[in-house]
Structures are given as C-alpha cells and as structure tokens.
Design goal:
The chain is built from 24 helices and 15 strands. The protein is an alpha/beta fold.
C-alpha cells in the first residue's frame, strides 16, 4: 500500500517536472527549427559552420521568450506565448517570401516602403506559391502552440528560482555564441568580422540566423554596431604599366617605338594634408587609404567621346538573354557593334533596382540596411555624370516611366545633376503596369535633344516582373510577336517585355538620325539586376542549359555604343556595373579621381575585379565563393601566394570605404566643386 502511494507520488512529481520543463522547450526548439528551415531554403544546406552559432543564439532568444511567458498566470502566459510566436513566425515568413522573390533578405530600413511594395501583390502571391513548403514548415510550431497551447505554456507565474535559471540560460547561451564567434577569426570574412565589423545580410543569415540578423540590423541602423572603421589599410597591388602604343601614325626609323606615357586619372588632392588637419580618426584613416590606392591610368581611349551627347539607360530586368538578332535586333546591334564586353556582370544588391542604379551611377557599393541612393540625396555627388556634364554646359535630364517618387528618386536624381521627370511629375506616360519605354522615349527626346550638348539618364520599367501575359501590359502588347517561340509562357513573356525596350531604342536611333545627332551621341545601357522574377527552370531555359546560380546568373550585357564607331572593340576582362561611371568619365575626358571610386575604368590596364553583395568576387585568375569560403582558379591560372586573402581584403576595403563615403559625405569634405560659369 505504501509502495503504491510512493509510486503515485513519484509519478505526480515526474508529471509536474514535465509540466515545468516542457513549456520551456517550445521557444528554443521552435526558433531553431524555423532558422534551419530558412537556412535550408536559402542556402540549400543545414549543417555548416553557421549552424552552431545559430543554435546558440536561438537558444538564448528562446530562453528570453520563456522568461516573458512565465511572468503571468496561465491565461496571461498563453496569450503572451501566442503573440510572441506569431510575431517571430511572421518575420520568418516575410523573410522567406522576400528571399524567394528577390534572392536576398529584407532589412528593417526597407520596411519603410512596405506600402508601395504591396503594389506588387502579384509577385508576392507568386513568391508564396513558390515557397509553399518552407512556409508550411515555418507555420507548424505556431499551429501546434495554438492547438496544444496549455501544454507548451507555464501553468502559473514562475518562481524566482525558475526566472533566475531562465535569465542565466539566456545569458549563458548568448555568451557561448559570442565567445564562439570571437574565437572564429580565420580568413578575411571570419564570423567575428561579420558579427562586429560589417553587416552583410545574406552572410549574416547564413552564419547567425534570421533573428540574430534582425538584431544586428537594428544595431547598425541605430548606430550601435562597430565603429565603422575597416581593418588597417592594405595597399592594393600595383597595376602593370600601360602597353606602349605609337603616339601617331608616322613611321619611326627606330625599330623600338617610343612608348606613350599615360597619366593617372587623379585630381590634386593632398590626402596627407587632410589627415594632418583633422583629429577625427575616421577621416584620418580615409585619407590614408585613398592616398594608398593605385589609380587607373589614362589610355588610348581617353577623351574618345569628349563633347558627345550621352543617353544612359538602366534597364529594368534586362539581361544577356534579351539580346537576340531576331527578337531584339536593335539591342543585338548595339551590343555587338560598339564596345563589346564579353565578361560583364550585373550583381544583385540589397535594395534591388535602387541599389542597382546607385552602383552604376556613383561607382560606390551600397550600404546594406539603408537606401543608399536616397541617403546620397543630401550628399555632394561630385563625380555623377549629371553633375560633371552639367558643369560643362550640357543639358542634363533624367526620366523614369513609373511613379516619379518611388524609391525617393525625386530626392536622389536631382542631386545627381538632373532635371528629373517621372510619372506624376512631368512625364505623362499612360499609367498601365508596367508603363511603356517606347512612350517614354517619344515624350522625352523632343525635350532633351537640341542644339545644346545633352545628357539624359533613363530608368526604364517595361521589363519589370511579373513575367506573364495576364498581369503585364508590355508582355501582352508583344505577345503575338513571340508566339512562335518554342518556350514556356514565362520565358516568352520575359522576351516580350524586353521587346518594348528594344523598340524604344529603335525609335531613339531613328529620332537621333532624323535630327542629325546619331553620330555624335553615345548610348550606354545596363541592367539594374538580372530577372530574378523568373524561376530557375525558366532561367535555365533561356540560357539553353543549366545556369550557375552562384556566379553566371549575374553575367549580363553592357552596351556602350557611339554612332561613329566603325569597328567593335572586344574587352575580355571581368567587369561589372560598378565600373561604368569611371569608364564613361575617362571616355568623355572628364577630370575625376579614380582613387575615390570603387569601380575601375574597364578600358584601362587595371586588372578586372567583380564583387558580389556577399563579398564573393571574380578576377582574371578565378572566382571566390564567400559562402563556401573557396577559391576556384581559372584553368591554367597560376595563383600567387596569399592572393585569395589579399584580394578579399581589398574587396572588404571597397565595401567599408564606400559606406564611409556615404556616411561622411566625404566628397564634400574634400572641398570638390564644379565651376559652372
């Protein structure tokens, strides 16, 4: 009898322990499970070096949630746990859908545009449809909580001992994660570097998880992160001297031709004096860095386009797949009869189109977590082509055939030196979705083309996703023209959108010829990003085979064409949209300082370098994958010792000093100015 009573008492005590422990397991396990779902969906892997850090930080956050759910009675604890679980799950769901659509993770700052993002509700629905499996898995813990909530919730207000244990567990798990991160210092992209020095959303999610990335994002947004200073300055490797070329067409009796000595593209800036005049350590380090950068040299193409007109396009969703001799003959002509860049890349940045514009027009890398183009609207953007050419007497205008203040272009684009027009402000295109590029050119060219030298910058919209014939007016407009193509609907709809861009350029060439400006006008065109609205199977279809989604998905086409070019010039070095501004600056013979731009004049003798948003890079010698922390050399390439790490440090410096230029309004501090008289 006594034995039975003792057994019953032990069972009750065991049940009580389970009732105490089980609720405390829900949040730590649920959060870690959701982190692994997102990790698997975004990176295709679950177990890597970041799994341990994610586990530590997930357990710490779970303990904090347990603490908050143990402060009230049973009913109050159930309500708090449900609210917390819904909020956490909602953030996981939002990030999963956002990543599915844009192939990157959303930052807190970008939530400010949530109202306008809903205008793309079709794309959001498509993202939900594509990611249905991970979304269901992410909902599973919260569904279980609502169905079995009382089992996963403390029955009463926890005692002091339990609260202390939970607090210690939160601090201990977080501390274990921090210690582990601090011990991981190997390489130039170590977890410690990513945790303390540089906020890189994709790599942060991969290494630390979605919720820790949210915390780091909030810290850097509030200025609570690192000091903003990069690692000590690493002097870039000197570039080889320019290849000697004859200075004129005359014969030289000396069998050894006299080499042409090219000057560096620099301005008279005394960085040593600037460093000596300030006590601000950030400005001192910036001066030391820019003084150490090897400038690009002038070359045989310097000033080739001096005095010419410039029409510069950032084309929505454009890619090399849209260049076809039959479907898009004008794009094909321009891409193959001017400068032909055989290894040009359009990396995808955090704020999609806006960051794509920022990179091309400023030759700076965007700062993650903010809208860099909008932030630059109050800065001195001295090197922007609009400001440079306006100072030379050009008429400078910018046009966008969608809502004129989207991404706050009404702030950023006038600051780049343009008289800006858009839908709702001076450009009365027909308000359909997406709007017509042809109509934009028909309305804008008479306003910009005249006797005065002119430069117009265009942000197109006809190539915008969603790539279907039902919800895309430009795809529907050209549906019959691609009806004979043996392709899926999405592939044909994409090409149909790009046909509108092609016909806009056809109209432009005709107009320039009719007005007598064809031969003295330069056309430059690149994409804002690759067409990420297409599923990989469709991209494979357009590519004619499996497409490498790590690097080759960013390979694109840069059009740089002048009406008086007689023969194409082929360029094989790796280059990207970051290099467009310095290349144009050199071709137009502008005074600029190549040390203060992150891109390089593609036509110079500087080695090629393409950087992606996650610090991966492509050079003449190979490719570095930051997520795998692996460098793959090109066939037959001899890799110098420490080349991979040295180049990665150079890439890190590019990111760091781009951010500091934006934050410090550095061009203004240099005292640069345009003489507009």
């Amino acid at each position: 009898m006594q034995g039975g009573a003792r057994l019953g008492k032990e069972r009750r005590q065991e049940r009580q322990r389970l009732e105490t422990i089980l609720p405390l397991l829900y949040f730590p396990l649920a959060i870690f499970f959701q982190e692994m779902v997102v990790k698997a969906w975004s990176s295709g892997t679950v177990v890597d070096r970041g799994t341990w850090y994610t586990l530590c930080f997930s357990l710490a956050l779970g303990a904090v949630c347990d603490l908050l759910c143990s402060l009230l009675g049973e009913r109050g604890n159930v309500r708090v746990s449900r609210v917390l679980s819904c909020l956490l799950t909602l953030w996981f769901l939002v990030q999963t859908v956002y990543y599915t659509i844009f192939r990157m993770f959303m930052t807190v700052y970008s939530m400010g545009a949530a109202g306008k993002i809903w205008t793309f509700w079709i794309d959001i629905l498509n993202g939900i449809r594509t990611a249905w499996l991970p979304l269901l898995l992410l909902l599973l813990p919260t569904v279980l909580l609502f169905c079995l909530g009382r089992r996963f919730t403390p029955k009463a207000r926890a005692g002091r001992r339990v609260l202390i244990v939970l607090a210690l567990a939160a601090v201990g798990c977080h501390g274990l994660g921090v210690v582990s991160v601090n011990l991981s210092t190997g390489g130039a992209l170590s977890p410690r570097y990513l945790y303390y020095e540089e906020f890189v959303p994709d790599l942060s999610v991969s290494n630390f998880g979605v919720m820790t990335t949210l915390r780091l994002d909030l810290c850097q947004l509030l200025g609570l992160g690192g000091d903003g200073l990069p690692d000590p300055v690493v002097t870039p490797e000197p570039t080889p001297e320019a290849t000697p070329t004859p200075s004129d067409g005359t014969e030289n009796p000396d069998p050894t031709p006299t080499p042409v000595v090219y000057e560096p593209n620099v301005m008279e800036i005394d960085f040593d004096a600037l460093a000596g005049e300030t006590t601000d350590e950030t400005l001192r380090q910036m001066a030391a860095y820019f003084a150490s950068v090897e400038p690009t040299m002038q070359n045989e193409y310097t000033g080739l386009f001096e005095g010419k007109n410039l029409l510069w396009f950032t084309a929505e969703g454009f890619s090399r797949f849209a260049v076809d001799p039959e479907i898009t003959p004008t794009l094909y002509k321009l891409a193959n009869s001017g400068f032909v860049f055989e290894n040009f890349y359009n990396p995808l940045w955090w704020v999609s189109t806006s960051d794509g514009e920022y990179v091309a027009t400023t030759s700076l890398i965007p700062k993650p977590g903010v809208w860099s183009m909008y932030r630059s609207g109050s800065n001195d953007m001295y090197f922007a082509m609009g400001n440079q050419l306006r100072a030379l007497g050009y008429k400078t205008m910018a046009f966008h055939n969608h809502t004129w203040d989207y991404y706050h272009r009404d702030v950023s684009h006038p600051n780049l030196g343009y008289d800006y027009r858009g839908l709702g402000h001076g450009l009365d295109v027909t308000p359909v979705w997406p709007e017509s590029d042809v109509e934009m050119m028909q309305l804008s060219l008479p306003e910009i083309v005249g006797d005065q030298p002119f430069h117009a910058y265009y942000m197109t919209v006809s190539g915008h996703m969603n790539y279907t014939f039902l919800g895309n007016s430009m795809a529907a407009k050209h549906r019959d023209e691609v009806g004979h193509e043996d392709m899926s609907e999405n592939a044909r709809a994409y090409l149909a959108c790009q046909m509108e861009l092609d016909q806009a350029l056809e109209y432009t060439l005709q107009y320039l010829e009719e007005t007598g400006h064809l031969e003295d006008t330069v056309i430059c065109l690149s994409a804002d990003h690759y067409p990420y609205g297409l599923e990989q199977s469709v991209l494979d279809e357009l590519n004619g085979g499996p497409l490498d989604m790590r690097f080759d998905v960013y390979k694109s086409t840069l059009i740089l064409w002048s009406g008086d070019m007689e023969e194409p010039v082929h360029i094989t070095k790796p280059c990207s949209s970051l290099d467009i501004l310095p290349t144009l600056s050199n071709l137009f013979g502008l005074e600029y300082d190549s040390r203060l731009l992150m891109g390089r004049d593609i036509l110079s003798d500087s080695p090629g370098l393409v950087v992606l948003s996650d610090r991966s890079y492509i050079t003449d010698l190979g490719r570095y994958d930051s997520k795998a922390d692996h460098f793959t050399p090109n066939e037959g390439a001899e890799i110098p010792e420490d080349y991979v790490v040295t180049t990665l440090r150079q890439v890190n410096n590019m990111f760091s000093y781009s951010k500091l230029i934006l934050e410090q309004d550095y061009y203004a501090k240099l005292g640069l100015y345009h003489d507009t008289e």
